[in-house]
Structures are given as structure tokens and as C-alpha cells.
Amino acid sequence: MKSTLKKLCSEQPWQWHRYINALLFAYREVPQESTGFSPFELMYGRTVRGPMQILKELWTKDVDTPEVKNSYQYVFELREKLEETLEIARENLRKSQDSGKHYYDRKAVNRKFTPGNKVLILLPTDHNKLLMQWKGPYEVEAVVGINDYKVNVSKKSKIYHANLLKLYVERPPEAVQVAASVEEPAELDEFDGEELLELGDLHKKEGVDDVKLGPDLTEDQQKELHDFMGDFTHRFSDVPGSTSLVEHEVHLTSDVPVRSKPYPIPFQARESLKKDIDSMLKMGVIRESSSPYSSPVVVVKKKDGTNRVCIDFRKVNKITVFDPEPMPTAADLFRRLTGSKIFSKIDLSKGYWQIPVREEDIPKTAFATPDGTYECLRMPFGMVNSGATLKRGMRKMLKGMKNVVYYWDDLLVHTETFAEHLETLRELFSRLTKANLTVRPSKCILGTDNVDFIGHSLKEGQKGLLLENVTKILNAPRPETKKQVRSFLGLAGYYREFIPNFAAITAPLSDMTRKGCPNRILWGPAQENAYQTVRDLMSRDPVLRLPDTAKEFILRTDASDEGIGAMLMQEHGGKPFPVSYASKKLSGAEKNYSTMEKECLAIVWGIKKFELYLQGVKFVLQTDHKPLTYLNSAKFVNNRIMRWVMYLQNFDMRVESIKGSDNVGADFLSRVCD
């Protein structure tokens, strides 16, 4: 009917409504797909004489003359014909139903639950009864029928059909207490090219001779480090070990195997792929598989011209239960490094490959190659919870150990004295030995006073920019498309805490990425000025002090007609040094605030920005707006300021008034928007 109406509307766009009756008349002789007969035939027991029948008679000149019958004969034959037609229609309908059921049941799974199982129930959402969502988990109390179950929902027993239930997969609890934290986006040096290798040569090529030592170490200190490395020679290897600390588990929301069509592999890459497969088979990293799961592999070119082969687990990841393993933030890691003078950076050898996959989950890691299907015995890169499993293993290994921080598979040992440093290294490598983990020698540096960690350069309590990343920013070509602008802003934005008012400076560039702007950007003086300003500020090698929670913090704020700024500082040697910068452009409504309101807004916003450092400690608030020094004693009629003052009562601060000429940093942050 829909296709017929569509055709009618296309042929008669202005008069289609006049042909509705004729269309319905012609539609009477259209057979129903399941029964094979039109409803008219099943109702009246005779063939419809519609437009098609009339057209046939006109073309063939063959017109059936109706046979004259008495009433009894007509009714008797009509009844027989209706019975025969009904029987044929029922048979056709049964075949159609069997066919439909066959195709529907190809992916159907019989759901069975037992009392005590935890399940999710498909229920209406809280905001719209027409929308459904999985809620739970709830516990199954009893089996009522073949497909019905009694479930305890909010302390009430209700009966649900199996179609409305789904098994809830619960991650095994850990007997460890951790503090929840928000996981930050991937850092610049989170993974390097080597870590993305899924397949590669596993023969040992590196040893203790490839480990770098700090350039400022004395001969005695170097000898002690060489003796230390000699005691743990077996830990320094580019061949990954196999730990028993943790196993990688893959919990899926569906029991239906996921299969993906293999991607075509270029002929020139197949030989190297086969060598990698053979090498991993010998090392026990993979094995041949007959798993119903199958993920494709993809081959990409590395910078050195060789091939990188990775497994595409996206379909498996879509049905994987997410593992919310917490990860320390970069700010928390840098806070722990305060006061440290000697560092050692240690990188695990292909950290993912050192963790085995749980036996029952190995088939879920299967991947297809031109030479067959294989499955991973070690944790592969690319699975949604691989990073969480690695973090959990690192947390277990380092539990209770001081002077060691980790980020993914990078470990950083930090101490004040060399003796303490050597003792910490021995304790760490004893734990690595117990866990059967290896570290990559060429990426290890021991006993240095200057180290690169999480995209920053650390030295003597200071945090600076990583030269390698700054060079990339300075050598980046001028963006021409939206994608290139986003890439440039993403790279430069990682160091926004070093650049006063980064958001306002880069506003002309970020505005070009808005929806509705052309893909090829229109480069003008404003964009050129923003581009060059960012490059210039990066090239000046700005330095921040690592926060020392034992010292008092100083917060300076200021406001202008266009923006507000804040600068967190601490005194070192009797002089204040910046810990971090922050700034914000005012919205249209905020620009209408009075001077007092803007200055107070700058204070509230600055405290919220650095609340992690200021909550629960005494700090100094410095402002060049003298009336704000009476925040704790003055009576304000303005309701907005009163609400802000009540919020500030939660903090133990001493307000100081300074000259505007002394408030250079925060003043610049607020006025650079002008």
C-alpha cells in the first residue's frame, strides 16, 4: 500500500486524492504475502474482477461467460471453494510463519536463570514511559514457569518474562581500598609507537648495558648502580615476562559470539605478518584457535617504514562490561614528587604482554589472519579494559611502597638522597622479580636529577615543558582545515597551565572549529596572531614549581571588563613562585556585573579552580581591590555577593590587599582578553 501511494503521488502530485477510490478498488486483487490470497478472495470465494483482470480481458478478448446455476448448487460449490481456499491459505500462512521463525531464531538464545542470579530488567525510563532502559541489578527469587521468573524489585516480588530479563555480570570485588578519582584523557607520552605493537620480534636484544645512568653521578654512585643491576640482570630485558599478579578478564553483556569480516591484508605485508605470528607462537603469546569469536587485524605503516599489526576489537568492546579501575590524576602524581631530587624512570617491556588472559576468556580474543585464526594467551592492546587490568596489577605490586609513582606502565622512583634511592630501587626490583615482570633497558634511566615524565620535564622541584613536544608545536605547519586546527589546539592545550589565559589567546582559532564554519578555515590577522603567540610563549620555556602541601599557598586574583584571572603561588627563598595559572573569559551576563561583583567572582572562581590545594588548609588570598579585604566582616545588600561570601566561609584564608602594580600575573590573565 505504501509503495502504491508513493507511486500515485509521484505521478499525480496535485490530484492524487481524487484517485484514492480507484486505488482502493485496484488494491482488492493484491494477494497477501503470507496467505497467497487477497482478502476479497477469502471473503467471497471468487477471483476479483479488478483493473488487472479487465485489462487482461481487453487484451486477450477472452471473457468468461458466467455459468447459470441454481441457488442450492451455487451455495454448495461456494462452501467447498471457501473451505479449500481456507485450507490452502492456512498452509501458506504456516510455511510463512515457519520461515520467519527460522530466520528470527538464527540469533536467538534461550535465556535461563536460577534463583540467586542477578539480572537487569527492561523497564520504562524515569522520564518517559514510552522509552525503555535496562535497570538493576535485581535478584531472581524463584522460577515460576517455563519462561517466567519471580524477581525482587525494590523489596517487592514481581513476575517477569525471560524476554525482559538479562543476566547481570558482576566484576569480582577486590580486597583493596582505593580512592576514586576522575581519569584524565590520554597524555601526550602515554603510549609510544612500540607500545602499540601487537605483533613483533620477542628475541632478547637489550640488557643492562643499554640502561642510561644520570650524568651527574659520582664514580662510587655509578658503581653501586652497576652492582644493583648485576643483582637483577634477569629483570632488564626487552622480552616481556609473565606475571601472576592479575589476569585479564573479559566480561560480556551477551553470550552471542561476535564475528567480524577480516580486513584484506596487502600481499607485501603478509610475509612479515607470518613471521610475527610464528615468533609469537614459539614464545607462547598466542595459539591457534577454533573460537566462534573473530576480530580482524589491520596493518599500518610506522615512521621507519616497517609494518605495525594491530587487532580491531571494537565489536567486542561494544558488548564488554566496563571496568572502572581508578587512575591517579597527573596533579596528584606531581604533588607526590615535591622535595625529590633524584629520579629513576623505569618502563615495563610491553607491559600488556606481561599479563595473561584468563583461560575461559581466551577465545574472546581470537583474531583472523590470511593463514588462520589465533587467540591471545597474553593481554592484547586494544581491548576496552586492558588499561584497567594493567593499572590494577601495578597497584597490587606497589601497594604500601613509598617514593614510587606509576602512570600506565611507566614507573618513577623519586627520593631526596642517593642512599634512600638505591634502597627504594632494590625494593622495587624485588617486587618486580616476585611478580615476574621485566623492564625495557633502553627506556630506563637511573639516578638522574632531570627526568621526563607524563609529558613534563622535572628537575629540583620544578616542572617544565618537554622539549620534544615543544619542538612539535614550533614545527607544526600553519593549520588549513578544522581537523588541523583541532590537532594543533590539542597538542598545545596540554600545556595550558603554563600559559597565562590560554583560552582567550586561542579563541580566534577555536572559533574556527564551530559548527557552520567552513572546513577550510579563513585565516586572518586574528588567527595568525593567536598562532604566533602560542608558539612564542612555548618557546620561552616557562617553568612552574611543584606544589608543596607543607607550605602555605598564595592565591592572587583579578578581574577586568572582559575576563578574570587567578594565579596559585608558593614562596621559595622568600620570593613567590607560580604553581599554576588559570583564566576565564566572562559571559555576556557576567560582563554586566559591577566592579565589586567581578572582583568577587574572580575570587570564588579561582578558589574553585584550585580547591584541591586550598580545601582544609590555611592560605593567603591577595587582591588589588581593597574593599574585598572586608569580606568576612562587611554587610552586603547584594544577594549574589552574599551567596559567594557564604561559600567562602568554608575556607580558612587570610585576605591581603596588594598594589595593582604587584598583581601583574593575575591582572595580565584577566586583561589579555581585551
UniProtKB/TrEMBL annotation:
Q: Some GO term, biological process aspect, for this entry: which one?
A: proteolysis
Tell me which InterPro entries the record gives: DNA/RNA_pol_sf, Retrovirus_Pol_polyprotein, Rev_trsase/Diguanyl_cyclase, RNaseH_sf, RT_dom, RT_RNaseH
Q: Which Gene3D superfamilies match?
A: 3.10.20.370, 3.30.70.270, HIV Type 1 Reverse Transcriptase, subunit A, domain 1 (3.10.10.10), Ribonuclease H-like superfamily/Ribonuclease H (3.30.420.10)
Q: Where is the Reverse transcriptase domain?
A: 281-458
**Keywords carried by this UniProt record:** Endonuclease, Hydrolase, Nuclease, Nucleotidyltransferase, Protease, RNA-directed DNA polymerase, Transferase
Which Gene Ontology molecular-function terms are recorded? Answer: endonuclease activity; nucleic acid binding; peptidase activity; RNA-directed DNA polymerase activity
Name of the protein in its database record: Reverse transcriptase domain-containing protein
Q: Which organism is it from?
A: Littorina saxatilis
